[in-house]
Amino acid sequence: MADKHTILLIGESNVGKTHYGAQFLKRLMVKECALKLSGAPTNLEAFNQALSCLTEGLSTDHTPVSTYVESIWPISDEAGRRAELVWPDYGGEQIRNLVMQRQIPSAWHERVIEATDWVLLIRLHSLRSEDDLFSRPLQSFAAAEPEGEIAAYELSDQARAVELLQILLYLAQFHLDQPLRTPRLTILLSCWDELETTELPVDILASRLSMLWSFISSNWVSPNVIGLSALERSLSRTDADQDYAIRGPEEFGYVVLPDGTKSSDITLPIQRLMMDGI
Description:
The chain is an alpha/beta fold. It has one domain: P-loop containing nucleotide triphosphate hydrolases (Rossmann fold, 3-Layer(aba) Sandwich), CATH 3.40.50. The protein has 10 helices and 9 strands. The chain has helices at 17-30, 45-55, 93-101, 106-114, 138-144, 157-171, 201-208, 210-219, 242-247, 268-273, and strands at 4-11, 35-37, 68-77, 82-90, 117-122, 184-189, 224-229, 254-256, 262-263. The radius of gyration is 19 Å and the shape is globular. The chain starts with a strand and ends in a 5-residue tail after the last helix.
């Protein structure tokens, strides 16, 4: 394991990357978390803007599709472990296009290759449940179509997530002849409060996205699955939540760790990646 980790956060649109980043930054600012800044972070504009909205009890806008700005945060924990948290601020549609077009933007190359740890954000509540060629027998589609006609089927959301991981592994030149120890992988199930469940994060991922979990558990030695509610409640872009504004955004948000423990320290998923042998 490398002495210094480079942790890359990845997620499609509408999974809450920017809100998580803003809340993460707020925790670092008030110093009520397992991590601290060990140097000056770069390019905080998007997160400061989101934090400004949260301070007023409002949600922030989505990142434009064409945007790609890297925000790099040097962090450390109480044991002296250090990492660079690479927080790309990008339109999540870039991830979808990466999979569908099989073209990797140059901005992604270096970061994927250098990263020792990956954090993939998935919002279960917003995923489609339609069947695709991976989840139903081929003959069932043929039976549903008029003779002589062939319909076009696109990948399901979970099939696209598998394809994304395969593309990233190919780009970083990792081979799947044996389970991977590097890059370490954490799945963050974002907007956890929407699910209204008491299940363990890994159990709900395995039940709802069985193909994705089968791929992950077969190809990584010790993947982490953690529930994340960065905001703890739904916020509007126009109608301010007065309770949120009065108490401050740092009073909201939590994670559900793999063993079901709930913690208000939303930096713990990153700190766990910095620890060896967890």
